[in-house]
Amino acid sequence: MILTVNTAPVAVQSQEARKLLLGLLVGLIAASIGALYTVYARWGIAHGLHSPDLTVLRFGVAGLVTLPVLLRAVLKDSAQFTARWKIWLAVSVFAGTPFGLLMFGGLQFAPASHAAVFPFSAMSVVGMLLSAVVLGERLSLRRAGGILLVLAALVLISGMDSESFSWISAMGDAMFIAAGILWASFGIILRRYKLDPLLATAVISFSALITYVPGYLLFTGGGRLLAAAPNVVWTEILVQGVIAGAGTLYFYAKMVSLLGASRAAIFPALAPGLAALMAWPVLDHLPKALEATGLMIAIVGLLIAVTATSTR
Predict the structure, then answer these.
(1) For residue range 224-283, what is the model confidence (pLDDT) as tens digits?
(2) Torsion of CA 36, 172, 57, 255, to 10 degrees
(3) Is residue 181 domain-resident?
(4) Four-point Cα dihedral 100, 104, 110, 114, nearest 10
(5) Per residue in 27-76, pLDDT tens?
(6) Is residue 8 part of a domain?
(7) Side-chain half-sphere of 113: how many Cα atoms within 13 Å?
(8) Residue 273: which residues within 8 A CB-CB, separation 6 or more?
(9) 24 lies in some domain
(10) Distance, CA of 69 to CA of 199 (rounded, Å)
């Protein structure tokens, strides 16, 4: 009699572990890109640029960089766009121009400390809820507890206090929350329809290229970009357009494919804490004790939430 050992469960567990580790790595890259973008946005503003100038570089450059990917996909299989145009339109709305306008527009009404809390809180909470309702992912107490730790860490990192709230700031906060909801919905669409991360990046970037960029040129004429120092413009082209514009979308989409929408929605909350560290060499801003503490708490909360199973 020959005894056989079923190694399939072990192989599946090993594959899942590798997938989780890869997802964690991709998530950290995505959060780091978000932090880098934030730091260099502040750097660019300090050198004479405004939020619309940075946004047009992000959308315009990313749209041009990823255009070959989109053209190749259209030539190879145009039916995937005509048959699923509603899905691609939704993706473009959730992560394209409307998202950018809400995020940057909110800064006109609410302080930067609120921008470090409200959009990322909305991404995490709404992403978790939508994953349960739309995708059927069960919410465990451990994952919910991890997310609560992350949200508490965001408050510490931001330094937000009661004096920063007003009726005007409430308008900005509402815009931040709306932006977070759009981004969380973007993750759900990616997961539900199993969209290719690179192609999704190309579609979103192209939609922003043909909507935001013409509007920017019409209303501003691009005068501030033309008047800015060349090193400032080229630095922002690299950071905002190439690294952040295309990189953020791709790595987030890849993370969703590896970890799922509810887990992926937590990672952007690391960006404010990482930005506090990156601001040290770029902006000569020494991280405060609360910022460092908040980042450590956010990392612990993230690990708790991401490593939680759907049944615990």
Answers:
(1) 999 999 999 999 999 988 998 888 888 988 888 888 887 888 888 788 788 777 777 777
(2) 50
(3) yes
(4) 60
(5) 899 888 888 887 888 888 888 888 888 889 988 999 999 999 999 999 98
(6) no
(7) 14
(8) 35, 153, 157, 291, 294, 295, 298, 299
(9) no
(10) 7
Query: Which residues, 6+ apart, have CB-to-CB distance to 312 below 8 Å?
Result: 140, 141, 142
The number of folded domains in the chain is: 1
The domain containing residue 120 runs over which residues?
Answer: 51-306
240, part of any domain: yes
Give ∠ CA 183-185-186 in degrees, rounded to 5.
60
Separation in Å, CA 273 to CA 38, 186, 220, 237: 11, 23, 33, 24
- Radius of gyration (C-alpha) of the chain in whole angstroms: 20
Dihedral angle of Cα 221, 100, 37, 201, to the nearest 10 degrees: -100
Whether 186 and 73 have beta carbons less than 8 Å apart is answered as no
